[in-house]
Amino acid sequence: MDAYVRLKNRRGLDQLMMHRQRLAVDLKSRSGFDFSLPIDKIDEEIAIIEAGLSKLKAVNSTAL
Length: 64
Known about the structure:
By secondary structure, the protein is mainly α. The chain has one domain. Helices cover about 85% and strands about 0% of the residues. The chain has helices spanning about 1-5, 10-30, 35-64.
């Protein structure tokens, strides 16, 4: 995620976020198997992406 921040690629981070959110929704709607581990991993990735977006926002606001 740091590469996206260094390159100021907000669009890439937004796309990663949307993809992970769709995965999370899909896995949470399934039954018949314990998806808790992949859901936890995806939730961790979402938190990392959110942190990257916050960093990028801070970088952009200081550049103004």
